[in-house]
């Protein structure tokens, strides 16, 4: 299990060390337009799961949404502090 800070740190590490076979590296390389579409897709899946599929499924979709948000933050060099100051 990971916290958001941990998944952000993992994505940031993938960006620097670029291990072979990493889906995160592939997504970072695909760029902000691709990542943005993933975020919109996952946000819709969160909504559908919460409305029609139940909390287990919604929680799974939320985890994917958080992952793609972390990837976007790293791709754009947005720090956790920059986000948290608005929370
Ligand atoms: N948490 C995630 C995570 N969530 C989602 N994804 C990626 O996002 C894809 C899901 O997006 P899609 O839109 O294709 O999914 P989907 O078909 O809509 O699937 P559902 O939403 O219907 O379940 C998955 O195939 C993964 O590639 C993730 N990829 C990685 N992680 C974490 O990042 C770590 C490092 O991953 P790598 O860089 O690939 O080693 C992993 O160990 C995990 O902890």
TrEMBL record:
A molecular-function term among this protein's GO annotations = ATP binding
InterPro entries reported in the protein's UniProt record:
HisE (IPR008179), PRib-ATP_PPHydrolase-like (IPR021130)
CC annotations in GO: cytoplasm
Compartment annotation: Cytoplasm
Q: What is this protein called?
A: Phosphoribosyl-ATP pyrophosphatase
Key words, A-Z: Amino-acid biosynthesis, ATP-binding, Cytoplasm, Histidine biosynthesis, Hydrolase, Nucleotide-binding
- What stretches pass through the bilayer? none
Q: Which reaction does it catalyse?
A: 1-(5-phospho-beta-D-ribosyl)-ATP + H2O = 1-(5-phospho-beta-D-ribosyl)-5'-AMP + diphosphate + H(+)
Q: For this chain's UniProt record, which GO biological process terms are given? A: L-histidine biosynthetic process
ATP-binding listed as a keyword: yes
Which pathway is this protein assigned to?
Amino-acid biosynthesis; L-histidine biosynthesis; L-histidine from 5-phospho-alpha-D-ribose 1-diphosphate: step 2/9
Record bears the keyword Hydrolase: yes
Query: What enzyme category does the UniProt record give?
Result: hydrolase
The family annotation for this protein states:
Belongs to the PRA-PH family.
Tell me which EC number(s) this protein carries. Answer: 3.6.1.31
Q: So which domain of life are we looking at?
A: Bacteria
């Amino acid at each position: 299990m990971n916290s958001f800070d941990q998944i952000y740190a993992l994505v940031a590490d993938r960006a620097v060390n670029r291990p072979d076979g990493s889906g995160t590296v592939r997504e970072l390389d695909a760029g902000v337009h691709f990542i943005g579409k993933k975020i919109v897709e996952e946000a819709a899946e969160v909504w559908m799961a919460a409305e029609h599929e139940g909390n287990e499924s919604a929680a799974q979709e939320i985890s994917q949404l958080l992952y793609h948000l972390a990837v976007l933050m790293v791709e754009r060099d947005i720090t956790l502090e920059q986000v948290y100051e608005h929370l």
